[in-house]
Amino acid sequence: MYFEPDTALLDAAQALCVALPAAGVPAVLLRLQGRGWALVGPAAVVGTVVAISLASASADVITWIAFILVPPGCALAFGWAMHGARPWLAVVAVPLLAVALAAPDDPAGRVARLVLIIGSCATAGRLLAATTPLTLLKVGVVAMAVVDSVFIFGDFFAEQNALFNSAAPAAGLPRLQVTEIGNTATDYGDFFIAGVVGAILAFERRPQVLAAALTLALAELWNQLFLVVDSLPGTVPPTLVLVGFELWSRR
Question: How many domains does the chain contain in total?
């Protein structure tokens, strides 16, 4: 049986992304509603790989984008996007960023990076669920998991993925496109898809805590494939939970 504590902790963090997003959006953002937002997930996976394949410097651009957007995304989560949010809690993102800046690769810095990423994914999920037809967004989630699985199981673009994970905005700055605990790393996309799944369930008033528990359980089952393969797409467990809830509701 496969069990690795660092991997399990990151799986629990991913499951937390399912539980956190709340529902609703300011009326002004409803003007941004459109079907195209459903393509964000799969387009991000393909676009990242293609961009890095064409120019390795693209990895630096992507990590700068994460460095700029993730902290305010986390602040929005604490102040608005997640369950239990309060406006004054948005300032929590400031000390988290300070710790991540002071010691990006120390244990405290890695935890701060992880919390920043989790928060930003809760915000991204809530915004996408509010501005995208949910049926199309569900299709986008499944498409993202399929593309991710094809890339990883097909052993395509491993070099580009490694470059993406190792890129940093500048020397000494935290990498907010990837999380690390011990020797285990999980990239932003795995948390992002969990945040989107959680937001979909929040808008449909489904039990997110149950979904989070199922995501963690499925992730640990999914990890048993590490006995025969070296890498797994972390987008699959939350996607399976979403599909399971959809099939159950249709019964």
Answer: 1
